[in-house]
Amino acid sequence: MTTTVYGLKNCDTCKKATKWLDRFGVPYVFVDYRDNKPSPETLMEWASQLGGLGAMVNRSSTTWRQLPDNRKAAASDAEWKLLLREYPQLIKRPLVVREDGSVSQGFSDNGFKKLFGIA
Question: What is the C-alpha to C-alpha distance for residues 9 and 30, in angstroms, rounded to an integer?
Fold first, then answer.
């Protein structure tokens, strides 16, 4: 099994992350959220490690800003799951699932060095 990177093909941060992985020889598979929407079970699994479904939402995205206020006020896991299934691009990117099943979000050079044990 290898590391899986979830994101969007045209996302600059995802591109930076995959270039970093290539540069350091870390094997990975890239999965575009739009082409392969995560299942509700997968969303819940990720959320359990990331502090809940609400913590997974990129609130600075254009998609978030364009949502009606009533959609932004999700009050339950069911509402968050529905929102993230409908708009997978709202999930913070990249979302990285490592071989051991651990999940992380976002990209920084130092963060990835720590995550992948590269000095």
Answer: 9
Block residue for tokens 């995959």: 18
pLDDT tens track for 47-102: 999 999 999 999 999 999 999 999 998 888 999 999 999 999 999 999 999 999 99
Predicted pLDDT at 1: 60
The position carrying tokens 């959320």 is 47
Give the Cα separation of 94 and 47 in Å (integer).
Answer: 14
Enter the tokens of residue 95: 């979302």
Question: Which sequence positions are flagged as catalytic?
Answer: 11
- The residue among 109, 115, 66 whose CA lies nearest residue 90 is 66
Q: Which amino acid is at 68?
A: P
